[in-house]
Amino acid sequence: MRLAHVVRAGVAVAAAVAAALAFPAVASAHVTVNPSTATQGGYTKVTFRVPNERDDASTVKLEIALPTDKPVASVSLKPIQGWTAVSESIKLATPIKTADGELVEVVSKITWTADAGSAIKPHQFQEFDVSMGPLPQTDQFVFKALQTYSSGETVRWIDEPAAGAEAEHPAPTLKLTPKAAASGAPAAPAGAAPDDGGDGTGAAVGLGVAGLVLGLAGLVVGLLAYRRAAARTS
């Protein structure tokens, strides 16, 4: 009976640790922008990754709002088969001076709408590419996103980053670094682990596996202790 208790306790510990450490993989399933960093004043291609979080509905539309107080002069969209992309522009109160002259209008919103049969189905994701620049001289560029499902539900990923707090519906955020800092940054060492796409899923899975290993190790230790105790009393 003692052995059975030890086995059950070890299995329970392993399951609890693995479940607790694997939880971030579920919580991280939100709209993200990749890469997560870029250089101020430069041009970059960003990818909005949109996972479907519903089991009974498909994602049929994505709306991305670009900050109008930190406008970007050039915005180009990569075509996606089965999706229609439309960009909206606004007039600037203060025109932007560029090498080609003054820019009086900038893109303020991009909307992708799925054609019939092209929606993001449950347990799937889609990526939407945008080329933009020059990026503003600021620490971060926050995109507010609206994800609409076939059920009519709209999830608003609009919570801006706040120090010491985890947002329930975080907005995709691109961190911007000055050119000097970006050029002086050390290169990644050879053999470094590849980027997991910025949504934290790879790290969360790794933690879950590590938790399972620790739990199984606890089970082994418990069995050895039981055997020693049994040997002493025999």
TrEMBL record:
Transmembrane regions listed in the UniProt entry: 203-226
Q: Pfam families from the xrefs?
A: DUF1775
Q: Where is the YncI copper-binding domain?
A: 30-176
Highest taxon of the lineage: Bacteria
InterPro entries reported in the protein's UniProt record: YcnI-copper_dom (IPR012533), YcnI-like_sf (IPR038507)
- What keywords appear on the UniProt entry? Membrane, Signal, Transmembrane, Transmembrane helix
Where is the signal peptide, in residue numbers? Answer: 1-29
Name of this protein: YcnI family protein
Species of origin reads Dactylosporangium roseum
